[in-house]
Amino acid sequence: MSTIKLIVGLANPGERYALTRHNAGEWFVNLLTQHDTWRLESSLSSRVIKQMGPPPLLLAIPTTYMNLSGQAVQAISHYYKISPEEILIAHDEIDLPVGTIRLKQEGGHGGHNGLRSIIQHLGTSSFWRLRIGVGRPEQASQVEHYVLNAPSKEERALIDASLQRAEDIVSLLLQGQFQPAMNFLHT
Q1: Catalytic site residue from 22, 91, 112, 121
Q2: Which of 22, 81, 85, 161 is most buried, judged by most C-beta within 10 A?
Q3: CATH number, domain at 115?
């Protein structure tokens, strides 16, 4: 039975992007840090925290831009010998309404450049995804502008509530209890 050993929060680096919808994955991982200190691992292109558990868990936020996230995820997974099935990628999802959160394994990238890069670098899409609903703009041409801007105060409150709910399933994921975790989030 596979369990989650690595949780990666996708984000763009820097203050300019910290509060943007595209950084929702980082917001989730920051909830899990238990006030630990991030350590910059330049060779892995990431900030990491090793939580000793039990069971042990590695948290990471790539220091690359979103479209290069796969480089960091590949470096971490190879260095720590973590298979794709043991990785959870937390990311913003425009195909879900604001405040909705879903867990799934495999699938395509759906136009998300971070996922596209990870699939390309790992050579598979068999990793787990925590899809954090940030909503969609009215026009497809506005997607980039939309995800690279901050949500409204009301939207951020809904997203934060969904992240708190997702925090409750982490212990299930560390035990390989994926179906109960999905049941909890999806109902």
Answers
A1: 22
A2: 22
A3: 3.40.50.1470
